[in-house]
Each structure stands twice: as structure tokens, then as C-alpha cells.
Amino acid sequence: MTEAQRLIAEAATAAEQSYSPYSNYRVGAVVVGSDGVEYRGCNVENAAYGASICAEANAITNAAAHGVRAIDTVAVTCLDGDACSPCGNCRQIMREFGVRRVILTNESGEPVEYTLDDPTRADGAERTPGASIERRRG
Ligand code: THU
Question: Is 56 known to be catalytic?
Fold first, then answer.
């Protein structure tokens, strides 16, 4: 098992704690803090849907609440439906803590690595529209 596969497995475990009665879409995330500790998060929804918290934001704020101020890697996966990708708000939260590497999963559940800055995948294979928008704004 690669490190990326292990982190995605951790994220899947985190997703089991998801509180998502409105979307029924369970998402989990794990971050590795600069202290070397892994912090988990899951999505926590609200009847006021905009007050919902994404798994990535939960994991990063969990790390921050333990004193972490720098995060290199975020791994995210979901247990239901299509593969997920971080929203703009979460990308901004990642930016704040210096996230460089984002590990998502493809349709087969295999890890795929992205950088936060570059519209190409970390392996250079393909473009992601959201990331292109981010670069134009930057
Ligand atoms: N969600 C996440 O937690 N992370 C993502 O990367 C994509 C979406 C959550 C938000 C909401 O609770 C549910 O998934 C449906 O969008």
C-alpha cells in the first residue's frame, strides 16, 4: 500500500463519522500536520445548509485547534456516489495553511494527486476546470 492509499483509507474511516442527513453524501478527510500528527475530519451538515462544514475544513480546523499552523497534504474521499473535489471555500482554507498536495480519488477509488496551484494534476496528466479558475484569479 502506498502512502497515498493509506491516507485515503484513513479519510474513508473518517467519513464513517459523517453527519450528512441532508445530502446522504459521506465525506472524510485527513491532514498531516507539520507536527507529523494526522488529523481527521468529516462533513457535518446543518438544516441551514450553508452552515454545513466540509470534511476538509473540519480536518484542517481540527489540526489548527491542536496548534498546527502548516499542513503539506490533505487527503479526501467520499463513501457515496461520485468522487468529490474540494469547494472554493475549502481551497481557500487549504491555502491559509500552505497545503501543497491534495489527494483525491478517481471513480475506481484509487488516489490521484493534485497540487493546489497548478491546473495540471501532480502527475501532469490532465486539467481540472476548478483549478484553472483558481489560477486566473491568482
Ligand atoms: N463535501 C465535503 O465535505 N467535501 C468535498 O470535497 C465535497 C463536498 C460535503 C459538503 C456536503 O456536506 C456534502 O458533501 C454534499 O456536497
Answer: yes
Nine-digit cell string for 123 = 502527475
Looking at residue 93, its amino acid is I
Question: Is ligand 1 within 6 A of the CB of residue 83?
Answer: no
Nearest CA, atom 4, ligand 1 = 54
Kindly state the helix (H) or strand (E) to which residue 131 belongs, with its residue range.
helix 129-137
- Alpha-carbon distance 136 to 75, whole Å? 24
What is the three-class DSSP state of 63? helix
Q: Residue 69, SS3?
A: coil
Parallel, antiparallel or unpaired: strands 111-115 and 101-105: antiparallel
- Over residues 69-87, the pLDDT tens digits come to 999 999 999 999 888 889 9
User: Which of 41, 56, 132, 43 has the alpha carbon at shortest distance from 99?
Assistant: 56
**pLDDT of 10-33, one tens digit each?**
999 999 999 999 999 999 999 998
What is the pTM assigned to this prediction? 0.86
